[in-house]
Amino acid sequence: MNLDISLAPQILFYIGSFPVTNSFLWMIILTIVTIIFTLIISASLKLVPGKIQSIVEIFLEGGYDFVKSVIGTDKKARRIFPLVMTMFVFTLITNLFTYIPGQAAIMINTADGPVALFRAVMADYGMVFMMTTITIILVQVVAIIVHGPFGYMGKFINFKSPLSFVLGLMDIIGEFAKLVSLSFRLFGNIFAGEVLGAVMLFLAPFFIPLPFMFLGLLSAVVQAFVFATLTLVFVMLASEIEEDEIVEQASI
């Protein structure tokens, strides 16, 4: 038996010219399951909540309180909470469902040979990159709305002094660094956990891999929280008004 580790997700089949990979298929299935579960909960809401509704309400209320404690006000929290919570729930579910026992053993025959039917969604860098791109674009939009187009550009292009100009260039590099660091942090941890688990199961397929599996589960939860929290922090920083802007607005 050979251990096949691939950085890129394997293609299962094509819909026209569109390749359907094992990570993409798993994402679609988990998305549908999550939507169905959400619709069932929404349709069965009661004034006196049951156990499941109580758990969901505590989960959402705790998430909203955390977002509010970071972002500062109810107005901002109501606007950013849906996106942050969606990213957290989606990342958490896709990470946790990777550890369903026996999932990796389900194979399908393709033109390139047998490949795993399912693969960790966040172990596909393309998926992580798109989520991160959405975050960074949102941050830039928030910054433009809060500071105005000229104030936003003035952060990066500033000729008041040589130091201000250099700092502006560093800010440009920093924005690209956010994209790289945020995406590689999530992708690297999930992919490394998947590879480590596969290697340990290959070498010792009984009790020895269990500690590594629990470590992977912990990393799955932590990375979902970290990704959502960093998204929240980036938006908060973009929405802050600096002291010189406050003085300028007061003078107007």
Order of helices and strands: EEHHHEEHHHH
| Average of the residue pLDDT scores | 81
Backbone structural class: mainly alpha
Helix content: over 70%
Principal-axes geometry comes out as: globular
Rg to the nearest angstrom?
Answer: 22 Å
Number of helices: 7
Q: Biggest β-sheet: count, sense, barrel?
A: 2 strands, antiparallel
Q: What are the salient characteristics of this protein?
A:
single chain; 252 residues; mainly alpha; 7 helices
Question: What features would you describe in this structure?
Answer:
The chain has 252 residues and is mainly alpha-helical. It has seven helices and four strands; from the N terminus they run ββαααββαααα. The chain has one domain (11-251). It has helices at residues 22-43, 51-71, 74-96, 125-156, 162-203, 210-239, 243-251; strands at 11-15, 18-21, 107-110, 113-116. The strands form two sheets. A two-stranded antiparallel ribbon has the order 1-2. A two-stranded antiparallel sheet has the order 3-4. Strand 1 (11-15) and strand 2 (18-21) form a beta hairpin. The longest helix has 42 residues, at 162-203. It is globular, with a radius of gyration of 22 Å.
